[in-house]
Each structure stands twice: as C-alpha cells, then as structure tokens.
Amino acid sequence: MSRPLIHILATGGTIAGVSHTDHPAGRYTAGVRPVAPLLAAVPGLDDLAELSADQILSLDSKDMRPADWQSMLSACRRALTSPAVDGVVILHGTDTLEETAWFLHLTLPAGKPVVLTGAMRPADHPEADGPANILDAVRLATLPEARDKGVLITLNGRIHGARSLRKYHASQLDAFSSTQYWNLARADGRFAAHDLAPLPRVDILAGYAGAPACLVDACINSGARGLVLALAGQGSVPESWRPALARARDKGIPVIRASRCSGHIPRNGNADDDGEGYLTAGDLPPLKARIALMLALAAGMEQPEIQALLPTL
Ligand code: SIN
Known about the structure:
Layout (H helix, E strand, L loop, with lengths): L4 E8 L5 E2 L8 E2 L5 H6 L4 H4 L1 E10 L6 H16 L5 E5 L5 H11 L6 E4 L12 H13 L9 E4 L2 E4 L4 E2 L8 E2 L24 E5 L7 H8 L4 E6 L10 H9 L4 E5 L19 E2 L5 H13 L4 H7 L4
Parallel strand pairs: 1-4, 1-5, 5-6, 6-7, 11-12, 12-13, 13-14
Antiparallel strand pairs: 2-3, 7-8, 9-10
The structure holds succinic acid.
C-alpha cells in the first residue's frame, strides 16, 4: 500500500540542538544537527509516511525575522502545490514557534495539513523529546482529519491550534498551552491571496509602572509603521503616553490596544480611548495582534478595515 508523502521543512531550534558536553549546566547550541539524522533517529517514522525534506534554515528561533517567515511561507506553498505531497511538517525552535505558526495560519490556504513541532531538549539529550514529537507531527500530517484546520502544532502529546498557542514555560517538557480557545476547526488563510512582501515593521511596547513615553517616539522616529501596546488589564493607556501616542496617530500610524493579560479588550472599555483613534485587539495577545497588523498593512488595509478584521481572526 502506498504511504502518504510528507514534506519536512527543518529550520533549527532545540530539536536540532547539540550539547556542550563539557558544560556543567548542560548548555547546548540550537539549530546544529541537520534534518537527515534527526529523521533517522525516529523509530517507526518510515512506516507512517514517505518523507522528503529540506533544510531551509538553521536558527535558534529567537533570531527568526519576518523575512524568515516569508521563506517558510514560500517553501510551504511550493510543497503544498505539488499533487504528490499530502502534508507539511515544520521543525522549529519552540521560543518563537507561536509567532511563525500564527503567521503561516494567516497566510496559507486551507487544505493539506501543515504541522509545526519542536522540542524542549536537544537532539543528543539521553531523553530527547524531539523524536516522539516528530513522530506525532508526521502522523498528524497524514490524517484526513487534519485537513482544513489551519496550521496545527503538536508537542508533548498535545495538539494545538495556531491562534490559541502560547509558550508559557521556559524549560518544562509541557511548555505550551492553548487553554483559552480550542478553535482547531477553523482554517484562516485570510491573507493567502495577497502578495505580502515586504512586511512593514510593527513594534510592541509594554505598558508597566513608570514606562517612559519616549519609547513611543523612539519606535515611530526609527521607522515603525504600526504599534501594538501590551497594556495592563483591559488595555488601559498610561496617561503619560497619550501625547506621544497622539503624535503617532497624527502621522497615520495605527496603534492597537492589547493586554498583558488574557481575556477580551472591549472597545472604549475603561475610557473613551477608541474614540481617540486607537484600535483594539479583542482577545488577540500582543504577539499575534502585531503579526495581524503587519499583514494587514502589507495588504494595504486602512484602519477601519483593520479594526473590523481583528475581532474576526
Ligand atoms: C529555539 O527556540 O530555537 C531554542 C529553544 C527551543 O527550541 O526550545
């Protein structure tokens, strides 16, 4: 019987990490081991699927740039348009996996499964978690039930959707959660038909006690085309930031109120902020609101259109 063909895109991460054996704290370098030996170390993989693989990046994902998301998008599109390929698996560092997954979720068409995975322990760890995660990811990518679900993520025996995924622990094997929403059944691909290069710069500013307003001007004066504010509570704007934010808005720069917490940011929740021209993120966390804004600006959307879009993502 013919096996499904799954195309693997390797980008680095701890899953491809190699330890410094002489280091007492068990340090390692991410993104070292190439994809072929990573796949060869997974027992039973060949029984599940026929595999092809490309090493498209070899990065620690903290160094991932928006241009790298676009390389991944192009590589996924190439693979998915081949009639022979049944699904794509991306091996990725866990640190910024939720950003890449969300970007791809918004830019890939619905259809064949695209599954991201990574690992919390390097490839040469005696109890490495990478092999089991790769096996799970390939298995998931072969399943008809994984079609049209948007980008999926599997780690540590769990399956997550791109919208709800959040890395919440720095070192535990069970580092990811998607406790708030389980909307696996919704493919998005909202920007799949757009030519998105280049992506404009959007910065995230954290609101915290005493955060100086000069940060706002620094972002705008150095070329940010949009701002996402990761604010306290329901997205409450610090009074000391208002003049600088008004200067940003006067230049036509969209400013999104998002929250450092989870939960929904209502329009004009605590104050008449949005009457002043702020956009609100709804329940999108700042990292994901930022990517949505980058894509919306790249697609030429105006602010009212962007505000209408955000709660629907
Ligand atoms: C990385 O994100 O590339 C390093 C950390 C990890 O993969 O867990």
